[in-house]
Amino acid sequence: EIVMTQNPLSLTVTPGQPASISCNSSQSLLHSNGKTFLCWYLQKPGQPPQLLIYELFNRYSGVPDRFSGSGSETDFTLKISRVEAEDVGLYYCMQNIYFPYTFGRGTKLEIK
Amino acid sequence: EVKLVESGGVLVQPGGSLRLSCAASGFIFNNYWMSWVRQVPGKGLEWVAGIKQDGSEKFYVDSVRGRFTISRDNAKNSLYLQMNTLRAEDTAIYHCAKNWALDYWGQGTPVTVSS
């Protein structure tokens, strides 16, 4: 099973400032079709997770463009260009190239 | 509007069985891969099982393989999870989720395994 490691486990950001979350995988998530199967989710308090980014850098429908995903085969980054109050919650990375899908432990984003 | 509504979660004794259901609407159900994902309150996420559009392929996390069975009824736009030989560590909120990238999740149904 692929192990997903996220850092930091928590961060506090001033509104309007950028934020960055890292995730790395124990195996390459690069498929032979050229796509990298890495997703990012945000779980707001009291809600199920919502998809932000799929296939490394593709924003899901309705996701603001202040969210961006990047990375290589095993090292990945979610960036928020300017954090807003509504961005608080738990952020998870997940690999969906091999079964079982596996998640990182989550990063808690709080607003200063 | 996409909707996924889970049901069937209850308090059950260790060793018992339970069947979860997920009613889907707002999209063409038989076009999508579907999964079950669980979350212990205050803890992280664990993908549990997935099923292909036509039900011909199923995958499980090791901790549930042989005890849980995922299935679907495309005529009823429904996803199921049959859970047998339940253990305390299966206690969690169980969500159904749509598509390879889990692009939409239901609110979940709580399962508690305790004597």
Walk me through what this model shows:
With 112 residues, chain A is mainly β. Chain A has no helices and 11 strands. Chain A is 0% helix and 47% strand. In chain A, strands 2, 4, 5, 6, 9, 10 and 11 form a 7-stranded mixed beta sheet that branches. In chain A, a hairpin with a 3-residue loop joins strand 7 and strand 8. With 115 residues, chain B is mainly β. Chain B is built from no helices and 11 strands. In chain B, strands 2, 4, 5, 6, 9, 10 and 11 form a 7-stranded mixed beta sheet that branches. In chain B, strand 5 and strand 6 form a beta hairpin. Chains A and B meet through strand 5 and strand 10 of A and strand 5 and strand 10 of B.
Q: What's the SSE blueprint?
A:
The complex is a heterodimer of chains A (112) and B (115).
Chain A: E1 4-7, E2 10-13, E3 19-25, E4 38-43, E5 50-54, E6 58-59, E7 67-71, E8 75-80, E9 89-95, E10 102-103, E11 107-111
Chain B: E1 3-7, E2 11-12, E3 18-25, E4 34-39, E5 45-51, E6 58-60, E7 68-73, E8 78-83, E9 92-98, E10 104-105, E11 109-113
Parallel strand pairs in B: 2-11
Antiparallel strand pairs in B: 1-3, 3-8, 4-5, 4-9, 5-6, 7-8, 9-10, 9-11
